[in-house]
């Protein structure tokens, strides 16, 4: 009976991986949409990539888009935390499977960070990689710490965007 429970719990994490992939896709789709809208409104893509996305360059549409993708990203990070905690509680899971799921979570966070950077959220990839240097992404604790570091940075950016909106 324990074997069935372990397999079921493992499959929950695999289902969770699909949920995480879907969340990253939502973030990327929202960023792509925001970039297309900004370009249509006259914002130059190279200005976004060069991080010149303040009110003078990006305008209110970029600021609003940043807030939208930050909200999606925070939701994604909460899902990462949920899945990491499932792995933490699942002591009977095959180590190879667990290691792969942790690697996948890290890769998804890195992918999301790269997309956020395209919208002008500065140094998101660097934030992820520096956090990974401090706490390895090969452990549940490392994944949780990296997710918390990203979330803290996103909340600061969101606060700044909302302050600039007023």
UniProtKB/TrEMBL annotation:
State the source organism's domain of life. Answer: Bacteria
Q: What is this protein called?
A: Decorin binding protein A
Upper taxonomic classification of the species? Bacteria, Pseudomonadati, Spirochaetota, Spirochaetia, Spirochaetales
The gene from which this protein is expressed is dbpA
């Amino acid at each position: 009976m324990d074997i069935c429970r372990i397999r079921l719990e493992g499959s929950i994490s695999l289902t969770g991986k699909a949920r995480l992939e879907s969340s990253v896709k939502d973030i990327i789709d929202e960023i792509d949409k925001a970039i297309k809208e900004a370009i249509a409104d006259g914002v130059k893509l190279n200005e976004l990539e060069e991080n010149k996305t303040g009110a003078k360059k990006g305008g209110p549409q970029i600021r609003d888009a940043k807030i939208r993708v930050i909200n999606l990203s925070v939701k994604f990070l909460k899902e990462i935390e949920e899945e990491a905690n499932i792995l933490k509680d699942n002591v009977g899971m095959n180590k190879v499977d667990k290691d792969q799921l942790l690697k996948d979570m890290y890769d998804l966070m890195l992918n999301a960070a790269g997309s956020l950077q395209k919208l002008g959220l500065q140094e998101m990839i660097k934030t992820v990689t520096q956090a990974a240097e401090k706490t390895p992404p090969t452990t549940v604790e490392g994944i949780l710490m990296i997710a918390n570091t990203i979330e803290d940075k996103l909340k600061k950016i969101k606060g700044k965007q909302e302050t600039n909106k007023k």
